[in-house]
Model the fold of this input.
Amino acid sequence: MTDTYLNLVNAGFTKKLAKQLGLPRPAVLRRYRPGAPLVPGPVLVLHDDASSSDADALAAQLLDWDLDVRRHAPGDERYGAVVVVLTEVGGPEALSTPLLALGPVLKRLTPGGRVVTVSRPASSAASPAVAAARQGVDGVLRSVAKELRGGATGNGVVVAEGVPVGAPSVVGALHFLLSGRSAFVDGQLVQVTSGAGALPGDWDRPLEGTVAVVTGAARGIGAAIARVLARDGATVVAVDVPAAGDALAKVANEVRGSALQLDITADDAAARILEHVRSRHGRLDVVVHNAGITRDKLLANMTAEKWDPVVAVNVGAPLRITEELLAAGALGEGSRVVCLASTSGIAGNRGQTNYAASKAGVVGFVAASAPALAEVGGTINAVAPGFIETDMTARIPFATRELARRFNSLQQGGQPVDVAETIAFLASPQAAGISGETLRVCGQNMVGR
Ligand code: NAI
Done:
């Protein structure tokens, strides 16, 4: 679905008019294109005194990506990104120097620029003062993200105690957050809990040689996931209901994968997936539980006909299929499970008690399944989209849709590809140290935490 308003305020006479009238002017987001630079300008690295050796290590990594790295911000130069390293910050007063240095640079960020903080979790701080500083980083980051304009975003990487900043998932998360792949991820803190994993040989094709199953792949976000995983090197098994067979075949052909017509709520769904991947592709590396439905009604008017299928498709099937694939030994070293949650499941949404129960259920299921996946050397995570331009959201009445679309820091809806890029990151080898998490792709939607 196209966002006509966004197009109008970014071109010609209507652009000028919107500026004169002071109307919101959502920017065209910087999205990933193979071959385009990782960051559209020099990258400034800032840090507090105690974090200088981590800042050195990350600056060396940025140089490794052929970026133009700066350690000071004199003059009026424009920057593509700022990385603020605060891993060893000792107390709240130590935040002022690096953050007051960040302030003036924000005005000099290029369109589509990035601010990325790197810090440690408050929960494992050695003292209340350290916890205050670490929690302070979260507050600053979420506020900075709300102040950025021009399609720039602010996100953070929170690195567990004992995990070095050079660990694959810290480096992988930094790469993702700097790149156009994270265009609609804003105001988020990615938690890295282990040093596991490996950096990809080719950052443009991190999924080379893998086989990925994507449910609900006939259209919308699922079709975008199939395309992005295939672009990143995966062989894709596209799954959808028989009624969507034609559209499914088209997507499978386009990505040179295979199609499996299957209702994921069927008793033998896991067995059929397994039989298909074993006979057609010989392996299984990634499962994306994307298929989902809505049947909205206020709880006062809710019926079992509207409640039960939503829970069965959105959380019951992913839960059972994952458990059965694990029990069958089909998910091994390096395996990745990624589920679709929703901001409705985090913040709640009027008329969506059934949907919110299912999507909050996904958040809980993913967190609780991380240990079982860790046992086999895999991970499980969820992605929670906010407002994404699809057939599902095109059915929302105009005024509600327009409000939902603008009610985030980027003042626009995301595209299916934005969700797909985040899923591809979580499916990659460099995300091995991230598990049990739910990562929002919502442009920093103003609802929920
Ligand atoms: P969509 O309605 O456009 O596509 C969903 C696909 O899932 C369809 O192709 C459908 O045939 C398939 N599907 C439904 N039931 C199935 C079953 N029992 N077995 C196999 N396939 C089945 O939805 P959209 O917008 O692409 O959403 C994809 C996922 O993202 C869903 O889980 C949805 O809840 C979630 N999501 C979407 C948001 C949005 O703004 N569009 C926001 C938050 C979450």
Summary: The chain has a mean pLDDT of 94.
